Automatic annotation (TrEMBL):
It comes from Qipengyuania citrea. Belongs to the SufE family. Residues 14-127 form the Fe-S metabolism associated domain. The lineage of its organism: Bacteria, Pseudomonadati, Pseudomonadota, Alphaproteobacteria, Sphingomonadales. This is SufE family protein. It comes from the Bacteria.
Length: 135
């Protein structure tokens, strides 16, 4: 997975439909999330599409699996995951993910329907991280 800064650098040079295509591409590049992990417990509430986020850990770092049933939303969750992927749980729990996503200006680039679930995606990622960091 590409880093959030690499994605932001590319995104900055794109316009309109090209930005949509980049988000769709990011969603396609996500690791496959097994169907068995797409449960009510991993479902992000408040999204217009179905979105699932599942944390795993190894070597002191968090690794997230995510998926959505909508292409753009899958790209948005891929952005959220890119900001936190393979970082220590304590760092993710305290991270300002909104600031990491600020260069993408999602609220002005996408419809409110598409972005309404972003705070819930961030909250779920940070809840998982805080729980894992606490042991």
């Amino acid at each position: 997975m590409r880093t959030i800064s690499d994605i932001a650098e590319e995104y900055e040079f794109l316009e309109g439909d090209e930005r949509y295509r980049l988000l769709i591409e990011l969603g396609r590049d996500l690791e496959e999330m097994p169907g068995a992990l797409k449960t009510d417990a991993t479902l992000v509430r408040g999204c217009s599409a179905q979105v699932w986020v599942y944390p795993t850990r190894g070597e002191g770092k968090l690794h997230f699996l995510a998926d959505s049933n909508a292409a753009i939303t899958k790209g948005i969750v891929a952005l959220v995951i890119a900001a936190v992927q393979d970082k220590p749980a304590t760092e993710v729990a305290e991270m300002d993910i909104d600031a990491a996503l600020a260069p993408f200006d999602l609220k002005n680039q996408l419809s409110s329907n598409r972005t309404q679930g972003v705070p819930n995606m961030i909250a779920l990622v940070q809840e998982h991280a805080a729980r894992i960091a606490a042991g």
